[in-house]
């Protein structure tokens, strides 16, 4: 059975500069409405896998840091299972798979703790390289930007990844690689424009 | 649950990245076209939020920040509708988060400098989760229009920001709801980033006198449409399954 689209998707509008009020109210001083902000923690005690910390900044076309961005992360657990209904079986119950973070309003830095994701299958059964999906909204961004963070220390897996293989300009692959910076720590900067513009995806 | 992959996004439905009349987009719009790929499990799945997330006043912006015995100032309204997908089915379990200015057009935010006063009884955030048929509702006060720095005499029409999670991360959407009959709508550079008049119309809530609560609050009706899934297996589940 097959259904065709009959309605049209609601058009996107920018999240604007006050996105924190709705998405991270405790962070912006609106206390007491929700007990905690959504997406506060990627994992609970007892999570399986290698715990890592990712740090980064988002830069605009002038090289200025974007201080008002909101970033959401969605990724597999250490075994490559997706929380939220993986048809192959349940993910690590201590792993949420989702965090939401704001760029620091002064420095623009943002960070999250997670575990290094396992490999998720492509529709044809091949394995994708370890990656996290990132979704970025901010003032001046009209439609949320989807990108992926891969790991620079996963050369063999990256070389056969079906999504990275779609990037014809091979020099741009590097924009998707988080770089190790110390034990269990990675840096991933996102450039919205310019010669090193991050690869964004239409998924 | 990944029970079918998504229809390709009709990007002509959405604002382009670069919209120079909305000036901030000039330095934040990616210059290169996004690279497409068919959704995998990473995009077909998404975080699941249960009703246990919600507190009793989460969907009541009139009272969820108010001091005991007080309520927010402004025209009381009830906003309701359904979250649908492109195939017309209701989307159950969709987390909807909203935020808005108060009735004077002032946000409760450090970066906000408009001279209209804060309302001590209004925070400006709320959330709810759609029911089995995709229906949702929340109570609030109608927000005021406000001026914003964009190089000219630009004012935002009254609006409520919406963030919606469907069942897959590929459906993630943030948009804004406007109010039927507001003469500020066609003047706004952010509204005008939407490429079609029909698209703007679809973001405009309708006054719904039939559902107005007499002597209490007017109702506005606003439906949201998320991307739909192409069914790849036999459809054995009931509506909303
Ligand atoms: Fe706004």
TrEMBL record, chain A:
Pfam families per the record? Dioxygenase_C (PF00775)
List the InterPro entries. Answer: Intradiol_dOase_C, Intradiol_dOase_core, Intradiol_RC_Dioxygenase, Protocat_dOase_a
Look up keyword Oxidoreductase and say if it applies.
yes
Q: Which domain of life is it from?
A: Bacteria
Molecular-function GO terms, alphabetical: ferric iron binding; protocatechuate 3,4-dioxygenase activity
- Oxidoreductase among the record's keywords? yes
Domain Intradiol ring-cleavage dioxygenases, residue spans: 41-194
Keywords for this entry? Dioxygenase, Oxidoreductase
- Where in this chain does the entry annotate a coiled-coil region? none
Query: Record's family?
Result: Belongs to the intradiol ring-cleavage dioxygenase family.
Q: What is this protein called?
A: Protocatechuate 3,4-dioxygenase subunit alpha
Q: Which organism is it from?
A: Roseivivax isoporae LMG 25204
From TrEMBL, chain B:
Do the record's keywords include Protease? Answer: no
Q: Check the record and name the SUPFAM superfamilies matching this protein.
A: Aromatic compound dioxygenase
Question: What Gene Ontology molecular function terms does this protein carry?
Answer: ferric iron binding; protocatechuate 3,4-dioxygenase activity
> Which keywords belong to this entry?
Dioxygenase, Oxidoreductase
Classify the source by domain of life: Bacteria
Oxidoreductase as UniProt keyword: yes
Start and end of every Intradiol ring-cleavage dioxygenases domain?
79-107
Which GO terms fall under biological process for this protein?
3,4-dihydroxybenzoate catabolic process
Q: Which family does it belong to?
A: Belongs to the intradiol ring-cleavage dioxygenase family.
Q: What is this protein called?
A: Protocatechuate 3,4-dioxygenase subunit beta
